[in-house]
Amino acid sequence: MQPFNPWIWRDPSALAGGYEQTRPDDVPRQRSEGGADEGPDAPGPGTPIDLTGYRVEATDGRIGAIDGASDDAGAGYLVVDTGPWIFGRKVLLPVGTVARVDHLERVVHVDRTREQVKESPAFDPDDFGRTDYREQVGNYYTESYRRG
Q1: Three-class SS state of 135
Q2: Contact at 8 Å (CB) between 117 and 110?
Q3: Contacts (Cβ under 8 Å, ≥6 apart) of 97
Q4: pLDDT tens digits for 70-101?
Q5: pTM (2 decimals)?
């Protein structure tokens, strides 16, 4: 098993329209009533995806919405605007925290709790390019996996 790298997708197919495996007798999942009907259909494999605007859910509730993202090789991240939850603070989530993406509902599910995200290093767009800042964020999330 490879060590956890917070900056790479654990399941790259999630970004490009990865779907749950189905059997021939399965009934296709339908959009929920009043859900994301105004959004686009789920993308096909290999389709580049802009996750901006997708809702972000932790294991125990909503975090916010994606304000920006990068899929740079080995350096993927999501910038999440938490809105009033953390007083308008933005947080940086490495893509390694993403458990799955629901393109029909436009929701990104991360496998961290709201508290773990809240306690993460503050996002500063001016610091993001600095190696020590990225190491600080990466180390925080790597350690959060060790603690559980």
Answers
A1: helix
A2: yes
A3: 6, 110, 111, 112, 141
A4: 867 667 889 999 988 777 789 999 999 999 99
A5: 0.76
